[in-house]
């Protein structure tokens, strides 16, 4: 076996080692104004070896999966680990786990593997046909990507795990113009499933929703500025859960003093009605997986329960540093990357408020929907998000649309200022999260009301 051959090559030079072998089959199609601008189909295969020696890591990759190539990679990784170990004071350790032998497959109801490119292209063309009739839409970009990843993981502790995971990402981006006013909108479908992601013409529904958003934005006014009540939709709530809470809950950042949550396990940091989870076990979501890239079976991570900080997202090394149990939070972008702590599907749990109850009592506030991105400082706990859509709330009613609205605040303050949590949770907001590497994620939650938040904009 490969792990045995690598073990012989590393004898006496590794306290721990593991191997990941990957085969990724995929298709990418992009269109602009209905014309195909990119179409690629192919396969990427390779492997990597990770070595821990005297508290230091060595890592090497190869596109050749033969036994000799893997032994050569192991030799390189061992040399790196040995060279680094001499200058490291804070030695890396691994929290213990039970080595597992398993095969796990995320099934597809409608496999994309044998479907012709014409079938996949139709999901782009039909969406463009649905939006091209609107003269204010000046540009429409639609893309499709599928990947089928087969990964094998072997460790010196005896783990032997094979997983197969499909993923689909469909995106539409519209640019609209009215007079000199220009606005853009993006909508996505991202799932860890097959072509059933498009059942019920979901892509056409997203195209229609994107058009409606453009219409609202082109007639929008400049936003108010100041501190006021804010109601956030599931899309922006998911971004808050991911960016402000999820990143601050990543164990590597906590262990190195780069999180505002450091030393706060067991403390009440939010309204008792707030529960936030990171959960790769949710079926079919874009950030879902079965085993992480250290061979640890993933589980639901309850980061905040009833306002109390209860857990972090952990790989084996950060779990050891924090004296906690690994929970399947190690992910790598590809065989070119070593596993680091990453999120999966991050969301706020439902409450018992209705949307109408949230509106009541708001004399002047803002209703925000979706995200255009933002920034987070995890160590200080400050964030700034840009909403994709927004609407004025006046005397308990939604009135006119707003454009270029931003929200800012301090995570630990906002968690306590959330005074109502809705009963209408929604997941399925697929994204690509960057942290030196890019991985698939998802987020969501119910509507929430923040009693006071800083609103700004144009």
Topology:
Elements: H1 2-9, E1 16-32, E2 35-53, E3 56-62, H2 67-85, E4 101-105, H3 117-131, E5 137-155, E6 160-178, E7 181-191, H4 202-218, E8 226-232, H5 234-246, H6 251-255, E9 276-278, E10 301-305, E11 308-309, H7 316-322, E12 330-331, E13 340-341, E14 345-348, H8 355-359, E15 364-377, E16 382-394, E17 397-402, E18 406-410, H9 411-417, E19 418-421, E20 431-434, E21 438-444, E22 448-456
Parallel strand pairs: 4-6, 8-15, 14-21
Antiparallel strand pairs: 1-2, 1-5, 2-3, 5-6, 6-7, 8-22, 9-10, 9-14, 10-11, 12-13, 15-16, 16-17, 16-18, 18-22, 19-22, 20-21
Helix pairs in contact: 1-2, 3-4
What this model shows, in words?
The protein has 458 residues and is an alpha+beta fold. The protein contains nine helices and 22 strands. A hairpin with a 4-residue loop joins strand 15 and strand 16. The termini are far apart.
As a percent range, the share of helical residues equals: 10-25%
Compute the average pLDDT.
96
* Total beta strands: 22
The total of helices stands at 9
Globally, the shape reads globular
Structural class: alpha+beta
For the largest beta-sheet, the strand count, sense and barrel status come to:
7 strands, mixed
- How many angstroms does the end-to-end distance come to? 61 Å
């Amino acid at each position: 076996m490969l792990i045995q051959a690598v073990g012989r090559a590393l004898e006496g030079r590794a306290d721990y080692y593991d191997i990941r072998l990957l085969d990724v089959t995929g298709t990418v199609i992009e269109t602009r104004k209905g014309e195909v601008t990119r179409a690629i189909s192919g396969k990427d295969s390779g492997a990597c070896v990770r070595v821990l020696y005297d508290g230091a890591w060595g890592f090497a990759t190869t596109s050749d999966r033969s036994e000799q190539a893997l032994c050569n990679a192991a030799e390189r990784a061992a040399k790196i680990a040995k060279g680094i170990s001499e200058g490291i004071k804070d030695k890396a350790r691994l929290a213990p786990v039970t080595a597992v032998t398993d095969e796990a497959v995320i099934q597809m109801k409608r496999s994309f593997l044998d479907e012709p490119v014409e079938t996949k292209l139709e999901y782009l063309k039909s969406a463009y046909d649905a939006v091209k009739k609107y003269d204010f839409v000046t540009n429409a970009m639609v893309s499709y990507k599928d990947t089928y990843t087969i990964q094998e993981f072997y460790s010196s502790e005896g783990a032997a795990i094979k997983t197969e995971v499909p993923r689909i990402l469909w995106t539409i981006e519209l640019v609209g113009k009215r007079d000199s006013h220009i606005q853009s909108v993006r909508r996505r479908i991202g799932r860890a499933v097959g072509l059933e992601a498009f059942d019920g013409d979901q892509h056409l529904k997203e195209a229609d929703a994107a058009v409606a958003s453009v219409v609202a934005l082109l007639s929008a006014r400049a936003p108010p500025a100041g501190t006021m009540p804010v109601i956030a939709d599931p899309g922006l709530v998911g971004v808050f859960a991911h960016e402000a809470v999820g990143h601050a809950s990543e164990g590597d950042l906590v262990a190195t003093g780069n999180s505002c949550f450091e030393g706060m396990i067991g403390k009440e940091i939010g309204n008792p009605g707030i529960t936030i989870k990171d959960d790769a076990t949710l079926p079919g979501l874009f950030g879902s997986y079965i085993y992480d890239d250290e061979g640890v079976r993933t589980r639901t991570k309850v980061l905040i329960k009833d306002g109390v900080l209860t857990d972090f997202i952990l790989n084996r090394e950060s779990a050891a540093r924090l004296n906690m149990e690994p929970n399947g939070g190690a992910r790598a972008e590809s065989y070119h990357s070593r596993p680091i702590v990453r999120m999966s599907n991050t969301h706020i749990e439902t409450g018992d408020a209705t949307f109408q109850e949230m509106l009541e009592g708001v004399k002047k506030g803002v209703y925000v929907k979706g995200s255009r991105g933002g920034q987070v400082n995890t160590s200080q706990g400050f964030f700034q998000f840009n909403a994709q859509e927004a609407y004025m709330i006046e005397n308990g009613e939604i009135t006119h649309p707003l454009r270029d609205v931003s929200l800012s605040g301090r995570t630990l303050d906002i968690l306590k200022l959330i005074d109502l949590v809705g009963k209408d949770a929604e997941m399925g907001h697929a994204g690509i999260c960057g942290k030196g590497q890019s991985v698939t994620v998802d987020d969501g939650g119910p509507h929430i009301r923040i009693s006071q938040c800083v609103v700004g904009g144009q």
